[in-house]
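User: Structure tokens for both sequences below?

Assistant:
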Amino acid sequence: MENMNDPQAVIDAANALIEKVQQGQDDIDAFYRAENLDPEKVNHILEQSMTDEIRAKAQQEFDADMEAVEREVAEEAARRSFQNSSTPPSGSPDINMMV
């Protein structure tokens, strides 16, 4: 796994994931077209056939995923804050040097 302490690595990983999801959607649309189906109509029918129970379950799972992401971001921010505060500035004198 890439170094997730590097902001650019996090951005690159997120962009790669977005691209993968978009490619997956393009592949699904191509499959529908190969079957002589209109992807927009198929998606519309699937949305209409989704019951309130299924929609609520999907929303619940999405919310849980978002909470996990937010928790992970907060934990990483706390770790970085601790790392930054526990490292003495390079210009400060060593206490042993002063005695």
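Moving on to the next sequence.
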Amino acid sequence: MVKESAKSEAKEPILSTLVAELRQERPDLSLSDIALLERLLDNREAIAIFERMDTEGYACWRILRVCLQANELLHSFKQIIDNLKRVLGDSKRLGELETLDRAIQQLSKFVEAEVSVQPASWLLTRIETPPEAVARMKGGLTLISDAIRVSATVARETRSRLGATRNTNGKAAERAAVGWLAEGVRGITGKANEALAVELATLIVGPDVTIDQVHGAAQTRDREWRQP
């Protein structure tokens, strides 16, 4: 009876608990996410890694989320970058955004100079524009200008954050995923902890990931993020 009681009270692996909670909260998980979670649950090393992290006081839920993000980056890298290119695009697309922004600035000047100011002479035709209407015009133009600039800025920074500023071919997806893991581990644990990043990367990217690769991917992300 004592043995049976001990077995029934055996602690559920932290990874199993996290995955169960995640699947309950996120029933819309992608097939790739589900495949990764099942792969982790079937992997003794993965279970042991999360048990150790839990014992060491790390935020295991945040680590699991970083793993899912890296997995998405690995499998959807080209699609993500292609979507970003539609916003950031090549020089032609950037030129279009800049042209739109200049047009908004010209419209703002028109509203300020022509609509807001009434003719000084009573002999001139007058078009009365209520102040509140002028304010709405200015506000709308400001919002459009902000949206244009934010779209380009977010695309640039996101692309750098994904580690895709230059080459997006070949092993780029793997490098981006490893770099994402490295940065996530550093942010959560408060130190580089490259050995842990390697352990997690081998579960997601493959068994051949080395500390040198993690270190290189992290350096690339730091360098690209600092670019203007």
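User: Anything stand out in the second?

Assistant: The chain is about 75% helix and 0% strand.
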